[in-house]
Amino acid sequence: MKKIIIFSGTTEGRKLSELMAAAGIAHTVSVATDYGKLVMKAHPKVKIQEGRLSKEAMSEFLRKESFDIVIDATHPYAVEVTRTIKSCVAGMKADGLEVTYLRLKRSIQASEETGLRFFDSNEACAEALKEIKGNILLTTGSKELSAYTASEEVKKRLYVRVLPGMESLEICRREGILPQQILALQGPFSEELNDALIHQYGIKCMVTKQGGISGGFLEKKEAALKNRIPLLIIRREAAEEDGLSFDAVCEKIETLTGVNPCRAVNRQKEKKKLTSARWLKTLACPRPRYPVPFRAMAVSAKRPAPAWSSTPKRKTMCPICWHAGW
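Now predict its structure.
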């Protein structure tokens, strides 16, 4: 059995881990924070490693556990983490160890269209916010918050949407964000919820990253366009362009382990649907096929036996209909 580790964020890595566990594939999940551990579902096939790892610690951990497959499912903007994982895997290969690296890439949905403004950095975006009046909904997370709090004038207009973890809340406190400016929520969010937040807090501008479908980018964009407010977008670094789609990663796992987590779970769902459909079909039959000895159909004054079961022979009857009072 191949030893697998997933370096996970709170979206793609979590979903992949759940599918692999349901398919019976044992693996380890490495998360950076306590919140990352909380959102992971407990499962006998899943071992969770919590805590940020330096390059040296990560390399030692991968070698000690002798992982055969390393899956990088970290956040698209965690570029440094991805570089560290790649470097550690390259070092293992250089030492003659057989290890496979898979990068799970989030699909991007963004285009240069009216109402959208793109920036290459958080600092450039923060500078542009000085020229925009009104409240700002900041959905870039807590790690880049310092770029937006550098200006007191911008900071007092911020409404910061972050994960409800202690680390995120501590960063907000350290950067001087007031409690009433913090929206601690777990995403992704629907267009309706984004729309409601825009109305609730009188938002005149929204800031986000060039995330993909799973990151709720489309819902943010549609809510911003619907309310006719500018959407400022931080471009993803070019280094993130390489990687595999979710389905492609599942196919690679199948090649290496013999089990495709996506297909395995789909087969389980289809089997449940088929079993359920057969049961419902049986219940719908007016003369169900349940062979029951005649002696089991005791006749009582309060519940007379069906007319078609009066002959003292082995008959068929539906226990559902019988208990319903036939």
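Confidence is low (pLDDT under 50) at residues 287-302, 311-316, 320-326.
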